[in-house]
Structures are given as C-alpha cells and as structure tokens.
Amino acid sequence: MRCPYCKSERSRVVDTTHDSRGGVRRRRECENCGQRFSTSERPILATPLIIKQDGTREEFDREKLIRGIRISCAKRPVSAADIDRLVGEIEAALQAMGRAEVSSRVVGDMVIAGLKNMDQIAYIRYAIVYLGLDDLGAIRQEIDRLLEN
Ligand SMILES: [Zn+2]
Questions:
Q1: Residue 96 to residues 42, 90, 116: CA-CA distances in angstroms?
Q2: How many whole angstroms from 40 Cα to the centroid of ligand 1?
Q3: This prediction's pTM
Q4: What residues of the chain score a pLDDT lower than 70?
C-alpha cells in the first residue's frame, strides 16, 4: 500500500479493526513521511447473473429493482428505507445461494414475498406488471388468495 502523501511503499499498521460484515480497516503510519492514513478491505460477494425470460443474462441491477418496486409503491405508506431494506435482503439472499445464475423469476418471487408482507396494494400492482397477470381473472384469483390469508 502506497502512502497517499509521499508514495512510499513502507508503512506500518498502528491499529486494526474488524467490522460485522467481514471487513478489515487498518490505520497505518508511513515510515517515510510519518503521515497516517487508513485502508480497508472488504470481501466481495458475487451476486449471480440474472437469467431473463427471453433467456439472455444480465447483471443484478439494484437500482433497476428499486425503481420497479418504487412504482408499485407509489402513494402507498412504504418508505424509501423499506424498499432499500427489501432490495438489500434480496441481494443478500441471492449471494447466499452461491450460484452463478438464477432466473429472474426467483428475484420476482422474492420481491412478491417481501411486498406481500409490506403492503398488499403494492404487492398486487407488482404482481400485475411483473408476473404478467394480464387478465382480470388471474388478478382476481390473486386477490382472492390474499383475502383468504
Ligand atoms: Zn509517506
């Protein structure tokens, strides 16, 4: 690690702290100029590629998922923090699967399950758009199933 002040490669570690997510932060002191700086190391977890319905693959896109959920939650009592937490949980669950690829349907099911607990109107809106519930019968079936629970 180069000193950001003098570019010397010689520094010593004066303090090491670990965070709850497996990251390590080191406080260093340059042996050449004496300046202190910190470095951090964080494990990079791989998120599986998403297999779309047409068979093509794409990177998991956190922002895109948030946008889709946000549209379903318009004018509903769901906060940006709630949506952010849901997407964070989904991303963590995908990483925990340890697979190279998963179907977009898996992601959709996770969103559906999360929204169902959060807000039923948002859930129905999401189901209509992303599960392709495109006729009234299918939508009604889904609502009936909700009302039964
Ligand atoms: Zn230095």
A1: 16, 10, 22
A2: 18
A3: 0.64
A4: 131, 149
